[in-house]
Amino acid sequence: MKTNNLLALILLFLVISMASQKAMGRKCESQSSTFRGLCLKYSNCRQVCISEGFTDGECKGFRRRCYCSKSCD
After folding, report:
1. Would you state the pLDDT for residue 13?
2. Which SMART domains match (predicted)?
């Protein structure tokens, strides 16, 4: 009996998590094609990404590159 309850709880959790991911949408990300130099300031990266047609941007990685993002939906 306990195994059935545990299985049902796991399935419920999976269904809820899948539904919430679908509601949030997918995020597409790409390295900026116009940003030059080290990415040290979030606001600079974000402005360049917006000018490229994305909705946001952030500095990432050891090499500090500017990555742009937008909703894929």
Report:
1. 57
2. Knot1
DSSP assignment string, 1-41: -HHHHHHHHHHHHHHHHHHHHHHH--EEEEE-SS--S----
Biggest alpha carbon–alpha carbon distance for the chain:
61
What are the CA-CA distances from residue 54 to residues 32, 46, 70 (Å)?
10, 9, 5
Type of residue found at 22: K
Instruction: Answer for the pair 34, 21: CB distance below 8 angstroms, yes or no.
Output: no
46: confidence class by pLDDT, cuts 50, 70, 90: very high
